[in-house]
Design goal:
InterPro entries: Ankyrin_rpt, Ankyrin_rpt-contain_sf. The protein contains 26 helices and no strands. The protein is mainly alpha-helical.
């Protein structure tokens, strides 16, 4: 393909597209490829080959001819020979069917349709080749065959987010309510709002579900979320994924959508606001604080937002929560935020918590924050804890070594041992050790 690049960009893409289509039109080449990719042309299971992230000639031609075709057309060159090549290829039923099977197998298993593309009209709609879609509709005089293929064509254009093709299909036919519902359920973020607007064609009340609102949130389509809120969709109804639209938006840091759902009076305290603390979404946390969310509530595992933010290393969120009055006064067990941050080497979180007055002591029998900082050989945090009156003589349960002993066991960092010795009240055995 490199030989095509030297000339005009648009002409190069056109020539590559024509070459790809010519190669794909060789029936024997297609059949060999079908056998190689283990395609059962009689309806059997499709086994996706293991990809080496490269292309052989047949796979490149199969997957890339539509891209070259669209680029060539966008350059506004004289492309009658390309149009003829595409129409000739799609008109060969057997060859197109084998290509559709291979294209389906090589496509991403999450985003591809359930079945291979069936007809030329559906194929053009799925690939977003609008240059061919509109003429085909007019030339067929809106035939019954085209009407029969319309549902699948609209759903494919919606799934792949081809705005121009979708507009052409919507303006050429009157989609039924079931057709629109099918397309909306699979719509890409680029066309979801367009399809929702089409539902206003129906006089009866359209059933906008919370599942659809969750999809709009997931796709980050602010205009679609606003549209559904204005249609009084239940924002606090728990759909099948067991997550409300608000908590999905908070977890994914959709700041504008969070604002929309707050203004729609979504229940902000339905679950613990831990989602944005896990993901590190500082702006969303600030929005929730402004909306007076209860940041002292716990999640299903009993964790607070401070514990969550500390265990994820989000020191800016910790600072924001503490400045807003979050309670850092935990019982001195080993799940307190300071110890969670120490376990995972989040020094910035440790400094924020200690500076806010987090306990440096532990309840009887538990290991203290200083014990964990020694275990991690974190001399900087050890100094910080000692400055805040951490007790170097603290002893946990009998099955845990004293702090000084643990410092030696953890690698014998001389500077760390000296730091602890200097902080411990002089005792004969320590003087002997120093000698």
């Amino acid at each position: 393909m490199h030989g095509f690049i030297a000339g005009n960009r648009g002409r190069s893409h056109k020539d590559i597209a024509i070459c790809c289509l010519g190669y794909l039109s060789l029936l024997e080449s297609q059949k060999r490829a079908a056998m190689f990719y283990r395609v059962d042309l009689h309806g059997g299971p499709h086994v996706c080959p293991v990809s080496d992230f490269g292309h052989d000639l047949i796979s490149y031609a199969t997957m890339q001819w539509p891209t070259h075709c669209k680029v060539a057309i966008s350059e506004e060159l004289e492309s009658s020979d390309l149009l003829v090549a595409v129409e000739r290829f799609l008109g060969q039923t057997e060859i197109r069917a084998i290509w559709a099977e291979i294209y389906h197998i090589l496509s991403h298993p999450i985003t591809r349709p359930k079945a291979p593309l069936s007809t030329a009209f559906v194929t053009l709609s799925s690939l977003g080749l609008d240059t061919f879609v509109a003429p085909r509709i007019h030339e067929s005089n809106y035939s019954q065959d085209l009407h029969n293929e319309y549902d699948a064509a609209l759903a494919e254009a919606a799934r792949n987010g081809h705005e121009d093709t979708l507009e052409t299909l919507l303006n050429s036919f009157n989609p039924t309510k079931p057709t629109l519902e099918l397309s909306i359920r699979s719509a890409d973020y680029r066309v979801l709002f367009t399809l929702l607007n089409c539902t206003s064609r129906f006089s009866e009340n359209y059933d906008y579900s919370t599942d659809l609102l969750c999809r709009a949130v997931w796709l980050r389509t602010d205009d679609a979320v606003k549209f559904l809120i204005e249609k009084d969709v239940a924002v606090d109804f728990e759909p099948s994924p067991k997550m409300l639209p608000f908590h999905l938006a908070a977890r994914m840091d959709h700041e504008r959508i969070v604002k929309l759902l707050i203004s729609a009076n979504a229940d902000l305290n339905w679950r613990s606001p831990n989602e944005p603390c896990v993901a590190g979404n500082l702006e969303t946390v600030k929005l929730l604080l402004e909306a007076k969310v209860d940041f002292e509530c716990r999640d299903c595992d009993g964790w607070s937002v401070l514990q969550t933010a500390a265990s994820c290393g989000h020191h800016e969120i910790l600072q924001t929560l503490l400045s807003a009055g979050a309670d850092e006064g935990y019982p001195g067990d080993e799940t307190q935020p300071l110890i969670e941050a120490l376990r995972l080497h989040f020094s910035k979180c440790c400094r924020v918590l200690v500076g806010a007055g987090a306990r440096t002591a532990a309840s009887e029998g538990f290991r203290s924050p200083l014990w964990f900082s020694v275990e991690q050989l974190n001399k900087e945090i050890c100094e910080l804890l000692l400055k805040h009156k951490a007790d170097p003589n603290w002893k946990a349960r009998s099955n845990f070594a004293p702090i000084l002993t643990r410092a030696v066991q953890s690698g014998g960092d001389v500077e760390l041992v000296r730091l602890l010795l200097d902080s411990i009240a002089p005792q004969p055995q320590f003087n002997l050790l120093q000698d």
